[in-house]
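User: Fold this; tokens only.

Assistant: Input:
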Amino acid sequence: MDECCAQFEGLLKQQLPELSHHLSSLALPATVHVYPWFTSLLTWSFSEVLTLRAFDIIFFEGNIDIVFKVGLAFQDSFKETLMKLDVGDAKNAMKDFSRLKDAKLEI
């Protein structure tokens, strides 16, 4: 699991460097919010519709990478909001992305 979290953190640094730097400055490592995503295959923090779509991709295509793509897509979609939050609010927002509405994800 640590390897998955490290891989996600690397992808975040590569694809969303500003957000990665902001989260690092808050001492909020990816493991805080990514670990539950991986252990629950997205059911812990995301909406039922998104989770079922991810399951379709995992089981139909055999592609577990969708977990990384969904996580990055959500962070990208809410990058501006997350960049304005302090550590407590950022942690809460990433724990439960299902509360964030109107997400337009490109996965």
